[in-house]
């Protein structure tokens, strides 16, 4: 069974969120819009492919929003 992208259901997922079990396509990963809860605790974060690919961008967005 192939997982489909949460935001683009016509596309196959390249990664799946371990916490929410949502699939994401390559475009979502490239835009770093895949992590549903970047501010909340996640027990999967230490081995999360999505977080590893996007953590610097997510942290930069947070810093920019803070001022």
What does this structure look like?
- The protein is mainly α and 67 residues long.
- The chain has 2 helices and 2 strands.
- It has one domain (15-66).
- The protein has helices at residues 26-31, 49-66, and strands spanning 15-16, 23-24.
- The radius of gyration is 12 Å and the shape is globular.
Q: How is the topology of this model organized?
A:
Elements: E1 15-16, E2 23-24, H1 26-31, H2 49-66
Q: For the largest beta sheet, what order do the strands appear in spatially?
A: 1-2
Average pLDDT, all residues:
88
Total of DSSP H or I helical runs spanning 4+ residues: 2
Indicate the overall shape. Answer: globular
**What is the beta-strand fraction?**
5-15%
- Kindly provide the radius of gyration, computed on alpha-carbon positions and rounded to a whole number of angstroms: 12 Å
Unreliable stretches (pLDDT < 50, length at least 5) are none
Helix share, percent: 25-40%
Record field, number of beta strands: 2
> Could you say how many structural domains there are in total?
1
User: What separation lies between the terminal Cα atoms?
Assistant: 44 Å
Structural class: mainly alpha
Keyword list:
mainly alpha; two-stranded antiparallel sheet; 67 residues
Concise account of the structure shown:
By secondary structure, the protein is mainly α. The chain has one domain.
């Amino acid at each position: 069974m192939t997982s489909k992208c949460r935001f683009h259901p016509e596309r196959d997922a390249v990664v799946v969120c371990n916490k929410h079990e949502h699939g994401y396509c390559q475009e979502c990963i490239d835009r770093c819009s895949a992590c549903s809860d970047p501010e909340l605790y996640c027990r999967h974060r230490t081995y999360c492919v999505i977080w590893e690919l996007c953590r610097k961008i997510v942290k930069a967005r947070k810093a920019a929003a803070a001022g």
